[in-house]
Specification:
Shape: elongated
Strand order of the largest sheet: 1-2-7-4-5
Number of strands: 7
Number of helices: 3
Distance between the termini: 51 Å
Length: 176
Amino acid sequence: LCEWGPLGGGTARRATKIGTDGVQGTITTTSNFPVESIEMEYPLLVEGYGIIENSGGAGKHRGGMGLRRVIRPVGHECLFNGALERATNRPWGIFGGGPGAAGRFLLQSATASDQLATKPSGIAVSPDQRLVIESPGAGGYGKPAERSVDAIEGDTVGGKFSEAFIREHYGRGHKP
């Protein structure tokens, strides 16, 4: 049995600032464990770790981005228990802001990818499977039309949002 604490995600936007990306914002006595700590402490391999593109809600001040971890047990079968909020109902935006992306758990093999329940218990994960943990993004604050061109440019150039997301939610691409 391998256990570690919560995985951070996007935190809420504010009236004057964007939300923060990939942080543990609700339980201040925990941290966002580094990959090296997980792999040194547990017989697990972290095959992927990063911010989820397009996961923060659109708005004058966008919501923070969720995180994705892809984990595989090394040399053993492990049992996965999880608890995920904001998987069924996406994190809402306020004052015209868009919702953030929902979180989810996936169990992947060479031939299939199955979405797990939001609170799975006793899920066997073998060394030839990968567990994908995606934390939710946060909703946006204010109308997306009020977001500055420079802020949109920063989100696009930084790889946090795709050109398609920008066009859909802000009605324009980034500056040439």
